[in-house]
Amino acid sequence: MTIDEAKAAARKAAFAARKEAFARGQGQAAELLADVLAPYRGKALAGYMAMRTEIDPTAAMAAHPGPVGVPVILGAGQALKFREWSPGCAMVAGEFGALIPAEGAWVEPEVVIVPLVGFDARGYRLGYGGGFYDRTLAGLRARHPVLAVGFAFAAQELPEVPIDQYDQRLDVIVTEAGIRHFG
Questions:
Q1: Is residue 19 marked as binding?
Q2: Taking CA atoms, which of 37, 69, 70, 98 is between 20 and 30 Å from 88?
């Protein structure tokens, strides 16, 4: 089995687990995420606008005292950029239907809340397959320290995420079941 086939099989299992977890609700996950973000007050934060069955970080993003950005896909094979977001700002549909601010300054984050399909006990994440977050984290980390915070349902944990040389490890994972630090 190739790495791409292994990742596709893992994605299928993780999507099914996430759908079931989403139906049960996210409990206190956003409050736990806000606790993890608290020491980074004033630092630039990147979050995301939840789609479909993703766990929703917007309550923690709205509570963050500092600039907050959400991802904008510029094109295939490119790193993400983050446009400044605030609760109630005008939003438009971006690539893949994700909402993005209609206008605003670009934000270079020091903390990134990372959406994911699955994760493992080593701190690796399985994304959607476009490489956007791995590329983005690698670029940001080459310029300055960046805290990568995975946000997911506990049910999305996989026995082992198939990885290659491009996969970026998370520093923290926050789920409704608790907070785990890596590395």
A1: no
A2: 37
Question: Which residue(s) pair with 69 in the sheet?
Answer: 46, 84
pLDDT recorded at residue 1: 84
* CA separation for the pair 23, 109 (Å, rounded): 31
Check whether 49 is labelled as a binding-site residue.
yes
- Six-digit token pair at 9? 């099989």
Q: Is 142 annotated as a binding residue?
A: no
Q: Is the pTM of this model over 0.85?
A: yes
128 marked as binding residue: yes
Question: Is 13 in contact with 119 (CB distance < 8 Å)?
Answer: no
Residue 10, marked binder:
yes
pLDDT tens, position by position, 13-48: 999 999 999 999 999 999 999 999 999 999 999 999
CA dist 59 to 25, 28, 29, 182, Å? 14, 11, 10, 24
- The CATH code that applies to domain 3-181 is 3.40.50.10420
Q: Helix or strand or coil: residue 49? A: coil
Where exactly are the structural domains of the chain?
3-181
Give the other-Cβ count within 10 Å of 170's Cβ: 27
